[in-house]
Give the backbone structure.
Amino acid sequence: MSYPVEVYIYDLSGGWCQNIFVNWLSPTDEALHSGVVVHGREYFYGKDGLEDQKPDLKNTIRKAEVGRTKMSKTEVAGLINNLRRQETWRKQLYDAVNHNCHHFSDTLVKCLCGPQARLPQEVYDFNKQIAATWYSQTMARTFTSSGSS
């Protein structure tokens, strides 16, 4: 048996990126956050490290099925516990530009679905756009140091 694996995408800016006054500050119209949903749980990485929750359907702006997994709910829980113990996903290493929720989502979908699995292209594009702008890197350091994700 196989189970669907989805990526939920959120706009953390609450629409502020679309404001004409601040539009020149951000290279995109949204501040994207991603989480991976499998077996009715959403897994994501942020300022508090690896977290899980019931999927947030109210604030999801887009979702996409990225593959299927043969892992049971128990096996997924074991995988997440193993990832939580890895140095890579400690909360202190979170960086809003260079080591964020999208990097974790990419890793998790590959663990669940195989190395061919990919996030929606807009997630990769968003990370590239953010990393390419000086202002965004400065803001990311501010968000990272202030505890925002």
About this structure: DSSP finds four helices and five strands in the chain. The two ends are 35 Å apart (CA to CA).
